């Protein structure tokens, strides 16, 4: 059974903008999927459908085996955590700790359990020291991580992230990747919308290209390595893949198109070995 | 980033800050009532001294106190000046004012001083109440003391909204200045400001909608979870006992 099943989803904004035009998409349990698309491709809009904040004009959305409809919303929202693109939308309680406690407290956990989760979530995003700070006084990158913590503390089965790495410094980005992978290992299904193509190979096994509808879907390597596909949608290949694809055109062949630094180093070694 | 921070001193570690919020609010509130009922200048003066001591104990910096106290002072000073002339009683002829055929009354002068002293004393205590805990802690304490939940949430979110409006306002005015906007007294300025104001409200509304979405996503169903409430301890009782004693003392002075 797929954890997320979306069929022929169509959505118009109230001003008649057609944002989604027949989206079909599935995600399996403990899978990390990246959602790529140009600005305005409908990524944020699609994500808001996964826990029923927006409801399509036609088509169906099924999550964890249940239809997204009024009677399932409360059940669903405990299991699907969504981190918005704009962290200011997500932080509304007076202190960071209260913000992170908001979700678990709504799940009727005991105070000790709530505190434990708050500490764990803040630890995971590296913000324990700022616990008592007013959320609206954090720096932007801190707010991004704080917004993630507010959702992590609910330990959702499905985690939906809208550009989690934008505005993060390099170390925080890598920490975010590690966090996503460790959540995935513990069974969480993760959907990440992002513009950070260089980071996608590290964080997702499968990639979906969106342009109001799903333009392509497949393994991250297969999608990101396809220059025509990516450039056709106004996207860029990851820099490593781009470089080695060009070398390939100049008849410098590599066994695979490398996506990560480690792969690139191996490939360079191999090429050097062959030519010396 | 906003520099507007009314809660800057709400997390100091003074004995007043560490006092359990409910006990603190009730005790200080009783003190305010006894100050408001003070009928003699002597009572009011003692009250003012007690309020000063509370401010000192709370370690609120002078700049913060004076900034806040400016408002009650602006309101009370004219009152203290006008009352002597309007209250009845034995007129005191002052050489400067006799040519204008107005004279203050002795009782009026005393009443003016009384109003000023007890007003300032009460305002100081009010300042101590609002400045020694984050707004939300105070509101939560009020909820525990019987304020309805819907009202509490209204306060909490309006409070958040003030910051939000302030942030949006700063961003917008900054970007307007960057694009060469200068305030002048012409029709165009009014037009631009009116549009900016409208946008400010639309943006704040959309922001509020975003916040609402995120609350729904995290299981909000009409109630705010209360966390971190503390228990009233022995030394909270002692503090309350002292302040209530002072309040009684003022009444029976
Ligand atoms: N509240 C709204 N009202 C009207 N139209 C909207 C609204 N929000 C988004 N849109 C439109 O819907 C389309 C899809 O927007 P969406 O925010 O989903 O894009 P996105 O892929 O997330 O883009 P980005 O990469 O810039 O975040 C865009 O054309 C946008 O202009
Ligand atoms: Mg978006």
Structure description:
- The complex is a heterodimer of chains A (276) and B (253).
- With 276 residues, chain A is an alpha/beta fold.
- Chain A has helices at 43-50, 73-79, 96-106, 111-124, 140-152, 170-185, 200-203, 220-224, 227-232, 239-249, 261-275; strands at 4-12, 18-27, 32-36, 58-63, 66-67, 80-83, 158-162, 189-193, 206-211, 213-219.
- Chain A has eleven helices and ten strands.
- In chain A, helix 3 packs across helix 4 (111-124), helix 3 (96-106) packs parallel to helix 5 and helix 4 (111-124) packs across helix 5 (140-152).
- The mean pLDDT of chain A is 91.
- Chain B has two domains: 21-143 and 231-251, no CATH class; 148-217.
- Chain B is mostly helical and 253 residues long.
- Chain B contains ten helices and no strands.
- The model of chain B has no long low-confidence stretch (mean pLDDT 83).
- Classes of the chains: A alpha/beta (276), B mainly alpha (253).
- Chain A binds chain B through residues 48, 51, 53, 74, 77-78, 80-82, 84, 86, 88-90, 92-95, 97-98, 101-103, 105-107, 111, 114-115, 132, 134, 136-137, 139, 150-151, 154, and chain B through 1-2, 5, 7, 11, 134-136, 156-157, 159-160, 163-164, 167, 207, 210-211, 213-221, 225-228.
For the structure shown, list the relevant keywords.
heterodimer, A: 276 residues, alpha/beta, six-stranded mixed beta sheet, four-stranded antiparallel beta sheet, 11 helices, 10 strands, 40% helix, globular, B: 253 residues, mainly alpha, 2 domains, 72% helix, 0% strand, flat, binds adenosine-5'-triphosphate, binds magnesium ion
Number of DSSP E strands of chain B: 0
Estimated radius of gyration of chain B? 24 Å
Q: Specify the helix fraction band of chain B.
A: over 70%
Q: Oligomeric form of this entry? A: heterodimer
- From the spread of the alpha carbons, the general shape of chain B counts as flat
Uncertain stretches of chain B: none
* CA-CA gap between termini of chain B: 50 Å
Low-confidence stretches of chain A: none
The residue-averaged pLDDT of chain B reads: 83
Strand content of chain A: 15-25%
The termini of chain A sit apart by 51 Å
Count of helical stretches of chain A: 11
Supply Rg of chain A: 20 Å
Structural class of chain A: alpha/beta
- Based on secondary structure, the structural category of chain B is mainly alpha
Helix content of chain A: 25-40%
Question: What is the spatial order of strands in the main beta sheet of chain A?
Answer: 6-7-8-3-9-10
Order of helices and strands of chain A: EEEHEEHEHHHEHEHEEHHHH
